[in-house]
Design goal:
The chain is an alpha+beta fold. The protein is 16% helix and 35% strand. The protein has helices spanning 18-28, 91-100, 165-173, 228-241, 299-305, and strands at 8-15, 32-38, 46-51, 60-65, 78-87, 107-111, 114-120, 126-132, 153-161, 176-182, 185-190, 199-204, 218-225, 249-250, 254-260, 266-274.
Length: 311
């Protein structure tokens, strides 16, 4: 049992247009851009991070905007919805706001007794706002949404799998327990202390075809551990269980390991250290273009080549 895992750390997805992506999260959803950097493996592509004021683990949505990328095809073997926590009684506010901002695909529903509003991102991404009682996480309130309505962080991710059985066993090994079931959806939550982003839904859809990754698709889901020592414990346990896990990779703002799940979704385990203020003052997070040291020599080219994302 991996009791080192304390919930979600971040979710990383693919997009097509960096400016449109930035506008959606910072203006329409009111999140803070906490980092503007580039993809380690493709430095001519942004890596944009949106979160609360500090980039707290459990609140961080990140994107690789590949210009002119083809849209992904929904299916199994992927995350279908990324859900954010909002205060109870605020979905009417959010529905009005999102309609006024031209957001599409809005639908009210209820799952496991929670009211939710699903909607689409710029590339058809699947999102939900879930009314959550007593979520004490502090929201970012300088993005045009007041403290009474603002997003608190992640509520959950929902995975669409042809067979969720093996992934369910993996989640139990990762300190999750099954807490409810509704039709083909099983809900899991972190046992013990968590960072508030502690829910995973697993939907089994045996007749649905496999997803094709592209703009609007989730690339991977990251789980939070406190530090590098805890991460190494998790890596050792996963490898002893038979998973092929990458070496530890320095991502500047956290250290990461990756492995592919039985259902096809790519999982990451990321450290809470060192955080997004390692190279920027908290007051100015996400303002300057920050480059990994190995790509610093490309700065003149990248600053002229990368799409401006602000008016």
């Amino acid at each position: 049992m991996l009791d080192q895992i304390k919930g979600l750390h971040h979710v990383t997805s693919l997009a097509r247009d960096a400016k449109e992506n930035n506008n959606f999260f910072t203006h329409k959803l009111g999140l803070r851009r906490v980092k503007k950097t580039v993809n380690f493996d493709a430095p001519d592509v942004y890596h944009l991070y949106y979160a609360d004021e500090f980039g707290t683990p459990g609140s961080v949505m990140t994107y690789f905007p590949f210009p002119d990328a083809a849209r992904g095809r929904p299916g199994t073997g992927e995350v279908g919805f990324t859900a954010f926590s909002v205060p109870e009684g605020t979905l009417a506010f959010w529905a009005q706001r999102l309609v006024s901002e031209g957001v599409t695909g809005l639908k009210r529903s209820e799952l496991f007794g929670e009211q939710r509003l699903t909607f689409e991102g710029p590339d058809g991404d699947g999102f939900a706002l879930v009314e959550t009682r007593d979520d004490g996480r502090a929201p970012w309130t300088n993005g045009g949404v007041g403290s009474d309505e603002a997003i608190r962080g992640f509520h959950s991710v929902s995975m669409r799998l042809q067979d969720g059985g093996a992934t369910a066993e993996l989640l139990k090994f990762m300190n999750y327990e099954e807490i409810d079931k509704s039709g083909s959806v099983r809900r899991f939550a972190v046992k013990g202390d968590s960072n508030g982003a502690d829910v995973i839904d697993v939907e089994s859809l045996p007749v649905l075809g496999h997803a094709r990754q592209g703009a609007g698709s989730v690339h991977h889901v990251a789980f939070a551990v406190e530090n590098r020592a805890k991460q190494l414990e998790v890596r050792k346990a996963l490898m002893e269980t038979g998973y092929q896990v990458t070496p530890v990779i320095d991502r500047d703002y956290f250290w990461a390991i990756y492995f592919r799940t039985p259902g096809g979704v790519l999982f990451e385990v990321a450290t809470n250290e060192p955080g997004f203020d390692r190279d920027e003052d908290t007051k100015h997070l996400g303002e300057a273009l920050k480059l990994p040291s190995q790509h610093e020599h490309l700065r003149p080219y990248l600053e002229s080549h990368l799409q401006p994302i602000e008016d």
